[in-house]
Structure formats: C-alpha cells, structure tokens
Amino acid sequence: MRSAHTVEQVRAAEADLMARVPEGTLMQRAATGLAVAISNFLGGTYGARVVLLIGSGDNGGDALYAGARLARRGAQVTAVLLSDKAHRAGAEALRTAGGRLVTSTPLTGPSADPSATADPSATTAPTAVADLIRSADVVVDGIVGIGGRPGLRPKALAVVQLAERFGVPIVAVDTPSGVDVDTGETPEPHVNAALTITFGTHKICHFIDPAATACGPVHLIDIGLDLPPAEVESLQTSDIARLYPVPHGESDKYSRGVLGLMVGSTQYPGAAVIATSGALGGPVGMVRYVGPDAVAEAVRAAHPEIVAGEGRVQAWAIGSGLGDELDIPRIRELLDAEEPVVLDADGLKALDDSGDHFDVLATPHAGELARLLDVDRATVEAERLKHARLAAERYDVTVLLKGSTTVIASPDGQVRVNTNATPWLATAGAGDVLAGLCGSLLAAGLTPLDAGSVGAYLHAAAANLASSSGPITAMSVAAALPEATRYLLGG
Ligand SMILES: NC(=O)C1=CN([C@@H]2O[C@H](COP(=O)(O)OP(=O)(O)OC[C@H]3O[C@@H](n4cnc5c(N)ncnc54)[C@H](O)[C@@H]3O)[C@@H](O)[C@H]2O)[C@@H](O)CC1
Ligand SMILES: [K+]
C-alpha cells in the first residue's frame, strides 16, 4: 500500500524525528536522494546544465543542497533566487561547490520576448534568466513544497513559463509548486513536472487529479519518518495478491459467490453483455442475469455460462445501461436488502440520502456525481477528493469516482486512490466492465472499499495489457482481466 499523508501529519512526524537527530540531518537525507534522482533523470551529471528555482523556504534548501552535490560531480548549476529569503546555508553550500547564484528580476510574463525578460544589470550573474533556462537540461522546482499555498507569484510564474516554452523538463522537489498539497486541487497556475521527488511519504496531491497529473511520475525518498495511519492510500501489486478472493480446495461455484446482474435494456443490450464479461473476468463462481428476455438471450449467446432469471445471489450489480427501463422502486428494494450492491450509471438515480447504505458501492463518473450533489461537473473535476467524500457521507455509500485517477471514498472516511489507468480506457462500455467486475468482487466477499479499489486496479491493469499503448474496446479489457489477474497474483 502506498500512503499519502496530510501536511499537518508530515510536519508532526518531521518535528518528532528532528528532535532526535542532529540538526540538518533530514534536509541532507532529502538533498542526497534528490541529487541522485536528478542525476538518474539526466542520465549522468558531468557537464549537465541544471537550473534551480529557489523560493523562500526549506523546499529551496533541499534544491540548493542537491545542486551543491551535482556541482561537485561536474554539473553546471545555477540557482535563480526568486526570494531574498532563500535558504542561506544551502546557498552557501552551492557557492562553495562551484555553483552560481542569480537573483531574478521581475519578469514580464510569457508574452514578452524571452531575451528581454531579465535585466542582466540587476542579476548577480552575466547571463539573463531566459538564456539560462533556454540552455538548461533540467529545471529544478524548489519554489515551494508543503509550505506552499496554491498559485505561483509573478516572478516564479514567468520563469516556469519560460521552461515550458523552451520545452525544458522540470523536476519538482517534494511537490510541483502551485498545487494544493492537501487536496490535489489546482485552482491557480502551477508547475507541470516531468518528475516529482518527494520525501518521507506521499502527499495527497501526488495521488489526486488534477494535481497528480502535474506531478508526473513520483519518486519517494525515505528520510526515516515515523508516520500515523495515512489519510489516503493507493493499492500496489502486493495488495491485490493479499486482497483477491482466490478460491481454495473446498470452494464451489456458490461459495465463490453468485452475482446478480440487473444491467442493460432493450435500448442498450450491449451494456448487459459487457458488464457480464467484466463480472466473469472476476472471482465470482456464477452470474445470474435479470432483465428483458431479448437481452438475456443476447447475454447468453455471448456467455453461455450465465443463468437467466432471479435466484439467490450474494451481491448485485445494478444500473449500467438501464436507460428508460429503470425500475426505481425495485432497485430501492434491493438497496435495502441484505446483499451488497454495486450501483452504476442510470441506477444511481435510485439513490436517496435517507437510508443506511454502507454496503453499497456507487460508481459514478464526474457528471453523475455532480448530479448526486447538485453541483456542476467542472466543480467535481476540480475538487475530486472533496466531492467523493461529500457524496460518501451524504448517501452513506462507498463512492468510486471514475476518472484518470479513480477515488474510492467510504462513508467512514477511508480513501483509496487508483492511479494506474491508461487514457485509452476512456472508451464506451469501460464503466460497464468495471461495474460487473466490482460486483464480482463484492459477491466473492470483499467490502465495498476493497471491491472498488481492487476492481479499479484490475480494470486498469487489464486495460494496460490489452492496450499496449494503442486503442482498446471495453470487451478487450474484459477479455484481458484473467491474464492481468494471473500476472498480479504471481502466476
Ligand atoms: N522540515 C524538514 O525537516 C524537512 C523539510 N523538507 C523540505 O521542506 C519543505 C517545506 O519547507 P517550508 O516549511 O520552509 O516551506 P516551503 O519551502 O514549502 O515554503 C516556504 C514559504 O513560501 C511561502 N509561500 C507559500 N506559498 C507560496 C507561493 N504560492 N509562492 C511563493 N511563496 C509561497 C510561505 O511563506 C512558505 O512558508 C518540504 O516541502 C521539503 O521540500 C525536506 O528537507 C525534508 C525535511
Ligand atoms: K517544489
């Protein structure tokens, strides 16, 4: 499990450790790891041109000390000081190691001619900032870390925009400056990093979009923090192997779980076929299909294994492709019954906030979640963690908010995030596969939180396998589920 902690939790753990180790130890651990990571990113250090963007705090200190290490190994390192309060000892270390320090002047923004954006007479080095950035191999963002508020001040923004304009990759120290660290929101301009190097633990912005996308790949460096339980978690391969309901010698089709599927309609028969494919690609022993005869025939033609008609089930998956044939009173009966339910797409219209639905896993996309919360879609997209949590609390369900990163929030406050999806997964029917798969996992006995997070992980893993960086169909994702599962279970 990867863990993301809040700024407050990180600060407390840092304070606790700092009281026990010599002064400066943590920053040296961070800077050492950072220097190695930058060197790996560059594929070598000697002769590399490195520009550090330095703000007023310890985030800049990390960058300066890492820059000193790189300079000692032959890199040409220049620090652009964006504040007159840059980390003093770090700046001295860089100077001693042969690096240069440049005081940035007010830059006039992206529309100006880059060669005119720095006034050489006001810098402590002869080279204008724009020229420096243009010829850099990498720009290191030490503007702000966990002490930062969203947004970039004008000087920082102008330099960051120069790097973007010249196509120079930015490596972010701890967090891409400008993002909201504790929510993953990006209400203001921010750095878009090619790589983020973080320390001690992940922060929430590393997991939650839109900030997660701004981080690029995130590399974690251990600095020895002793941390409390995490606010947000993200499953890894070993967690899938631990949580997946693998059948054993005594298992039969009933004990493995029977899933009832109430999906698809005469209007959308394909949704039934696709969701069934997703369910059969999961751990369930048997699938019962409940729906119009013509649709049941289509499902049976694709999957002769299914049984049509009502009967005893251990869980339901309801809603994908029901269209106008939605029977809200019947769905509410099932929501109130004992068996856990995956509630998807049109089925979400049956959700009300009066009942106790802790065994329901609701799987909305941003638009559907927006309707449930009576806000607009853009608001949900911008504040994904907040709205997933809000809906989980209001409807007393576990909410799986679909998207490039999937957020799964349970009503007791636990949050998991899935970040392994491929953008190719944004294809018609992919949600039906996920609903069937999550239903399969629920029927096999997982909790809604585990079913949602394992389901999202496997769904993305199957999509990656089917895609190999090319287009996929929902059916090809479902077809890849057994192989992806076998691989993740170590088979
Ligand atoms: N505390 C420690 O022991 C460690 C801290 N580390 C580093 O220290 C960082 C935190 O350092 P700080 O607490 O000094 O804070 P930062 O360096 O993140 O921010 C410094 C200051 O910048 C100002 N600021 C806030 N938002 C801004 C914005 N949008 N634009 C410009 N300036 C803004 C604030 O006054 C803030 O206190 C971590 O992210 C990490 O990189 C690491 O060295 C590991 C150990
Ligand atoms: K940063």
Automatic annotation (TrEMBL):
Give the EC number(s) under which this enzyme is classified: 4.2.1.136, 5.1.99.6
Residues that hold (6S)-NADPHX according to the record? 58-62, 145-151, 174, 271, 321, 365, 432
Q: Where is the composition biased (Low complexity)?
A: 110-123
Q: Which segments constitute the YjeF N-terminal domain? A: 10-231
- Where are the residues of the annotated region Disordered? 100-123
Q: Where does this protein hold AMP? A: 402-406, 431
The family database entries (NCBIfam families) matched by this protein are listed as: yjeF_cterm, yjeF_nterm
Name listed for the protein in its UniProt record: Bifunctional NAD(P)H-hydrate repair enzyme
Q: Which organism is it from?
A: Kribbella pratensis
